[in-house]
Each structure stands twice: as C-alpha cells, then as structure tokens.
C-alpha cells in the first residue's frame, strides 16, 4: 500500500478518537426494531443499478437547488462538540446559510443499513441528506443497489485540492464516484503490558500463554483479515482457498480455548477491566484509553493491520442533495478539517491539518497544549511510514463472494 | 342480521389479530421460502428445503437454546416459588410493597441491567477478585463468557415473570381450605403438597409460558454475557437478518423456532391437563 508522507500525518491524527463504547453494542440491541423494518424490506425486490452515465450525473445535479437545510446522520462522538453545540457546524451555517440538523443516528453499519434499506428500496425519504458509512459489505451493497447519489466533482474543489492522494480513488469506490472519506482508522493489536510481553506479531494472538485472555472481533471482515495476516496472505489478493486457510487458523485459535469472546465495541471495557489481556483493537479507542492514563499499548503487527474508512455519502432519497454536497466539500478545507480532527482524533483525509494542529498547540497553553501535541505526535494518530506500508483494506467482495466469505468466517465467531 | 351478529362481535378482535398477527406471519412465511439476495432481489420459489438446511446448519444452537431455556426455567421456578409463597402467605400488609420490589428492576433498561452483570462478574471484579485473593478459586477462573453466566442472566432477567403468576395463584388459595386440611389431620407438609401446591400449578404453568418462550428466543444475554460457545438461536437469527441481510434463512429459522416452541408447549399442556392450561392462559 503506497503512502505519501504528507498523508501520514493525516492518517496519524485520525486514528485517535475512540468512538463511543456503546456504539456497536447499542445497535445490536436495537436489532429487534430494525428487524421489524427489515422484514418489510423483503417484499421489495432489490435491483442492481447500472453504473451511472456521465450525463446521468449532470442530469441529476442540473435541477438541484440549495434549500438552506441539511440533515446529517453520523456515528456517536464523531464530530467536534462544545457544550452540546458543534463549532464546525455553526461555522458552516454562518458561511453558507445552510442550517444543519445533526443526528447521532448510527451505532453500527449493519443495523443502520438494515433500517434504511427498505426505505431506500421503496424510494421513501430516510430523513437524512448525508450519512457516514464504513467501507465494506454494506457500503458496496448500497452502491450496487443504486442507493447513493453519484457526486458532481465539479462542485468538490476543496476535495480535489486538499484530500490526500491515498484517499482518492479507493478500491471500493473508484474515482470517489459516490463517497468521500470522513475519517479513517486502523485495526491493530492492543495489549496490557502488565500481563503481556512486547507484541510485534499477530501470532501473539495465538500464544498459548494468553489462553482465555485473547479478544477477537465479531465482524467477519475484521477477523478474516487477521486470520489472513497470520497465514501471510494479502487480503486484497486473497482467494477462496486462502480464506479457508485463514479460517482454519482462526478455528484452531477458538478450539484451543484461546479466545475469550468475539467482541464488538465492548472489547475496550473488557481490556480495561482485565477480562482480556491482548485483543484486536481500533486505534482511536486505544488512543483515548491511553490519553485517560491507562497503561495499554497499541501496535500494528509486523504481518499487517487493517485500515478502514468511514465515508460521507448522499442517499438517493435526499431532499437537500446540493446542501449535502456543499457540506462534503466544506469539510475538506484544512481549517475545518483541523477543527474536526482535534475533536474526533481519528485519521483525517486532509494531510495539511497536522501543521495546523501543531500551530494550534503552539498558541495553546497548559493541558490543551499538551493534548494537542500528544495528538500530533502519537504513533497511533500519526503512524510511521513503515506501519502505513503494512496496512490493508477489507477485501472488496461481490455478492456471490460475500456469501462464500461469510459462510467461511461466520461459523467461527458464532458457534 | 342475527346470523351475522356473532361475527360482527368478534370483528374488532379478529381484525386486530389479522392485522398484527396473521398478516405478518403469512408475510414472513412467504419470505422464508424465497431465494435470492438483497442486491438482486428475492424471488418466491417455494424453496422448502431451506428449512432442512437451516435446521442442520444451526441445530446445535437450537438445542443449546432449548437447553438453556429449560434449565433457566427450572431454576426460576425453584427461586420464584418460595418467594411468591412468602409474599402471598407471609407478606401481610406489606404485600404490595414486596410486589413493587419484585418489579423494581423493570424500571431500569433490560440492557443496562444485563451489562451491569458484566461489571459484577468481571475477572477482577467485585465478586471474583476477593475470592481470588483468598485463594478460594484459581486465578484463571472466570464466570463471564460461560454457560453459567448466560443462564444466570436469563434467570435474573425473567424471574419476575415467574414470581408474579405464581403469586397470583397462591394469593387465590382460600386460607379456609388449608384450615380444612389441617382439621382433617393433614400435617403442614401434607397440607402444602396435597392442597396448596396443586392449586398453584396453573400459576406455575403460566410462569413457564412467560419465561421459557422468551428465554429460549433471547439473544441479549448470550450477546453480553456469553462467549463463543454460548451463541443462541436468537443471535443467529439477529445476525442472519441484520448482518447478512439473508432474510429467507432468518425467517425460516424464526418459523422453525416458533413451531418447535408451539409443539413443546402443547405437549407440556397435554401432560399437565388441558383444562388447567386454558384456565391459566385465560388469566
């Protein structure tokens, strides 16, 4: 994975902020109501959308006008907040005249997708004009089903000028046809040095010394990547045979009683409480734990780590698409991106923010100065070039591949 | 007109049932035999083989759920009966206070109550860390992510549903029949086993219905307190639906679960005597 050095800074920053501990948890539990909605979806037949024609993009946007309102669905704890208000959103309203209704509607990608999918399928307004979806199976489905509006890049000059080269043209959305990144984060290994010797390799997750004290992730894509790293397989180039090899490795880890549980966001608590000593972990969560003074270490294993991206996109039922597009471009101004990264602490797609964070640190004093410097200098927020080179994405899967993929990996985490 | 009157009278209830029960069920049954995926759409193919497929694929989880439900129900009866008995016969003027105390946990969210057990039972938590420092349990002993934790969570969460019906049944026992038994030289134990217990069985039956069914279908406890080997059928259905968007297999699993439970309950009702059952259900 080629990484340009200016991007590193951005990448580093973005890794910091843990999203709410309850995010994925809460979603699961909300599953019942979502299931009810999803049932309705069954009656509606899905349809594969043809890739948009160049004219289609122009046609769609030609008639769209600025309405002065924007409804934004985001994950919890995923924007700057001061006394319950968001300075960056208020600045957006002041600069553009567009009022924003900001909702922390997303706890978990599958549950959120489960809720909006039936509405999108029937063309009913989902209540949001812009939303944040993680790359992976559900984002690919949303694109394949034609649920997202193709972006008019002539209206995204800040993205063109300021986005890191690395975030442009991602494998899951060639040419950023439908999405632009909000932030990115890393999956690596976190461990408690009180019980665990220094960790450099994914094989430490298979170390019998830590039997019953190992945490793995429930998400099949996450756990699959680590199985493949352990087998020396590059997920991007993996085949079904590779998946089975990785699955056998993971199954053995489970059968040997090494794995305490396949966690969602709750691994952070389990790690902090001492239920587990070593676990797959998201960079931002661990940065926050460390910032709170916990003695926890985060490493990107030598065999590889996973990079994932949360993406801004516009649902096809958006009532205010032009306002949404305006916002998508707005956040790519380095000043705004700096406001966001200083609060969110995950990897920003705008690399030039690192200098701005350092400039802010120079102006600040006391604890603020310290925390801003910590942000700009943390290897979790600004990983070294060598670490970046080892990062891989989730394997892009076709629908047919996805079925096989899930049938290979899901039985491991759900026994 | 007279001929139609009875039908008109059941119309409101019938309509309610049709809209909220029959229509969704028919719909779900139809989903269960469809084939396809969320991108290319689902097509009705009357694919009945899916039932065999999901049952063989997830048979372990089915049996495990039924086992957990059964054990948790029995434990609930053992815990709930003495408590209900005590409130009904020894509660005196404070009965309603005790009942309120039984219900009090419901004022806190189900999820929150379950999550709080994670803190109580943590490896170095309130309960285990003193035991470990005293050397009563080995250092690597843990409760979280074990069968015990899941069944314990189920019992804890559904216990009031067992206490209340048993209490109601016991409360209805006329003290004079107990006196009569004693007048006829029954010992206290005999008065209980021959009079009070049989009279309270409909309450136990209702309690079993109200706990066994939701316990078996529960997925929150296994999700929060369980480990990789404690997955219940509810977790499978939830993830088939929301993670995989595989609606047919999720629907088929739900139907299979419902059928299994109905069969089980009717068998149980038969064994216990149908009249009692209907009576209990009517309450």
UniProtKB/TrEMBL annotation, chain B:
Topology relative to the membrane: Multi-pass membrane protein
What GO biological process terms does the UniProt entry carry, in alphabetical order? transmembrane transport
Superkingdom of source: Bacteria
Spans through the membrane: 7-27, 66-86, 98-121, 141-170, 191-213, 250-269
- Which keywords does this Swiss-Prot/TrEMBL entry list? Cell membrane, Membrane, Transmembrane, Transmembrane helix, Transport
Q: Does the keyword Transferase apply?
A: no
Q: What InterPro entries does its record include?
A: MetI-like (IPR000515), MetI-like_sf (IPR035906)
Question: Does the record's keyword annotation contain Cell membrane?
Answer: yes
Give start and end of each ABC transmembrane type-1 domain: 62-268
List the subcellular locations: Cell membrane
Q: What Gene Ontology cellular-component terms does the record carry? A: plasma membrane
Q: What is its main location?
A: membrane
Residue span of the signal peptide, if any? none
Record Pfam families? BPD_transp_1 (PF00528)
Give the protein family: Belongs to the binding-protein-dependent transport system permease family. CysTW subfamily.
Q: What protein am I looking at? A: Spermidine/putrescine transport system permease protein
Query: What is the native source organism of this protein?
Result: Streptosporangium sandarakinum
């Amino acid at each position: 994975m080629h990484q340009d050095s200016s991007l590193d800074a951005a990448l580093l920053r973005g890794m910091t902020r843990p999203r709410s501990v309850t995010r994925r948890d809460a979603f699961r539990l909300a599953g019942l109501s979502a299931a009810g909605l999803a049932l309705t979806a069954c009656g509606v037949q899905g349809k594969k959308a043809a890739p948009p024609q160049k004219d289609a993009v122009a046609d769609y946007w030609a008639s769209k006008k600025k309405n002065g309102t924007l409804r934004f669905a985001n994950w919890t704890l995923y924007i700057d907040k001061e006394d319950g208000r968001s300075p960056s959103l208020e600045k957006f309203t002041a600069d553009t005249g567009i009022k924003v209704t900001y909702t922390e509607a997303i706890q978990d990608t599958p549950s959120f997708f489960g809720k909006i999918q039936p509405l999108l399928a029937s063309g009913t307004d989902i209540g949001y004009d812009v939303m944040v979806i993680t790359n992976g199976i559900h984002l690919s489905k949303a694109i394949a089903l034609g649920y997202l509006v193709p972006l008019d890049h002539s209206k995204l000059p800040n993205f063109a000028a300021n986005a890191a080269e690395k975030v442009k043209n991602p494998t899951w959305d060639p040419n950023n046809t439908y999405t632009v990144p909000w932030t990115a984060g890393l999956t690596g290994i976190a461990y408690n040095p009180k019980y665990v010797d220094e960790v450099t390799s994914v094989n430490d997750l298979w170390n019998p010394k830590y039997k019953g004290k190992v945490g793995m992730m429930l998400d099949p894509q996450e756990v699959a990547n680590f199985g493949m790293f352990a087998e020396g397989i590059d997920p991007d180039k993996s085949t079904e045979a590779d998946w089975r090899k990785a699955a056998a490795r993971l199954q053995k880890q489970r059968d040997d009683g090494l794995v305490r549980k396949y966690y969602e966001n709750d691994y952070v608590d389990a790690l902090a409480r001492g239920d587990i000593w070593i676990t797959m972990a998201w960079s931002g969560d661990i940065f926050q734990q460390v910032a709170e003074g916990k003695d926890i270490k985060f490493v990107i294993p030598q065999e590889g780590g996973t990079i994932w991206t949360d993406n801004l996109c516009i649902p096809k039922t958006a009532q205010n698409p032009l306002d949404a597009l305006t916002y998508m471009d707005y956040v790519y101004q380095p000043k705004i991106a700096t406001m966001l990264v200083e609060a969110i602490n995950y990897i920003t797609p705008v690399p030039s923010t690192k200098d701005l964070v350092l400039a802010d640190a120079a102006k600040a004093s006391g604890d603020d100065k310290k925390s801003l410097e910590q942000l700009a200098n943390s290897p979790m927020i600004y990983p070294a070039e060598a670490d970046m080179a080892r990062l891989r994405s989730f394997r892009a899967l076709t629908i047919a591949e996805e079925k096989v993929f899930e049938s290979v990996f899901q039985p491991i985490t759900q026994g | 007109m007279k001929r139609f009157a009875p039908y008109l009278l059941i119309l409101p209830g019938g309509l309610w049932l049709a809209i909220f029960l029959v229509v969704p069920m028919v719909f779900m049954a139809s989903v269960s035999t469809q084939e396809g995926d969320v991108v290319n759409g689902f097509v009705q193919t009357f694919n009945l083989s899916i039932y065999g497929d999901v049952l063989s694929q997830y048979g372990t989880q089915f049996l495990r759920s039924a086992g957990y439900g059964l054990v948790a129900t029995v434990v609930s009866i053992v815990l709930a009966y003495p408590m209900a008995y005590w409130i009904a016969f020894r509660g005196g003027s404070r009965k309603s206070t005790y009942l309120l105390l039984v219900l009090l946990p419901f004022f806190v969210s189900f999820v929150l109550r379950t999550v709080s057990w994670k803190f109580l039972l943590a490896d170095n938590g309130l309960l285990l860390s003193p035991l470990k420092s005293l050397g009563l349990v080995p250092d690597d002993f843990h409760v979280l992510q074990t069968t015990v934790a899941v069944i314990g969570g189920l019992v804890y969460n559904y216990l009031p549903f067992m206490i209340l019906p048993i209490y109601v049944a016991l409360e209805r026992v006329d003290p004079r029949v107990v006196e009569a038994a004693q007048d006829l030289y029954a010992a206290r134990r005999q008065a209980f086993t021959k009079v009070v217990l049989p009279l309270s069985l409909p309450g136990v039956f209702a309690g079993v219905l109200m706990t066994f069914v939701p316990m078996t279908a529960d997925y929150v406890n296994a999700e929060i307190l369980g480990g990789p080997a404690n997955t219940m059928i509810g977790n499978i259905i939830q993830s088939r639906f929301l993670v995989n968007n595989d609606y047919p297999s999720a629907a088929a699993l739900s139907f299979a679960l419902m059928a299994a439970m109905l069969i089980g309950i009717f068998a149980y009702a038969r064994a216990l005597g149908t009249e009692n059952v209907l009576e209990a259900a009517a309450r």
